[in-house]
Amino acid sequence: MKLYELATTPNARRVNLFLAEKGITVERVQVDVRAGENLTPEFRAKSANGRIPLLELDDGGYLCESVAICRYFDELYPDELALFGDSPLDRARVEMWHRIVELDGLIPAFQAFRNLSGVYRDREHCVPAWGEESRARLQAFLPRLEQRLGESDYLAGARYSIADIAAYVLIGFLPRLDISVAELPQLQRWLDRLRLRPALAGC
């Protein structure tokens, strides 16, 4: 298998942290997204959404979307971590918090960055006002994370999960938007706990 990625992007980081937790190694191929390598006919013939990360399977097929790739590896290599949950209720709670982080955190963060920085202005219409609104929505979401982490060691409950990985990636993205979480003590304690995990060391 091969993983096509740009390692510094949030969705690639989500897959990489997930694989690191499970101790899985896979060949990586870096794709220069800013130069538009993902927009070439050759790449788009492989990727249903024209984005990275993209997993090339041994049978010649492909999987895109970071969570789909994580689910595939989780099913392929089941272990005691159960990063998607280990019971019907646990899996539902992981899914719930993962979606909350995606819809109320990661998507606004991406929209804010793309529209305010204009990083892809050569291929999309940037709307600075929408960037500011997305940034404000993201800032309004952070106190909800703070409240939740005051109630539970991890987002979905007592166990670390892919929801925490997604939130960790989100927090790592915030400096690009000049947003700080230094004054959120519960979130800081959660970050300190996560940084003790070998898979996240230095990430």
Automatic annotation (TrEMBL):
A Pfam family annotated for this UniProt entry: GST_N_3
Superkingdom per UniProt: Bacteria
InterPro entries the UniProt entry points to: Glutathione-S-Trfase_C-like, Glutathione-S-Trfase_C_sf, Glutathione_S-Trfase, Glutathione_S-Trfase_N, GST_C, Gtt2-like_N, Thioredoxin-like_sf
Molecular function (Gene Ontology), one example: transferase activity
Signal sequence segment: none
Keywords linked to the UniProt accession: Transferase
Protein's recorded name: Glutathione S-transferase
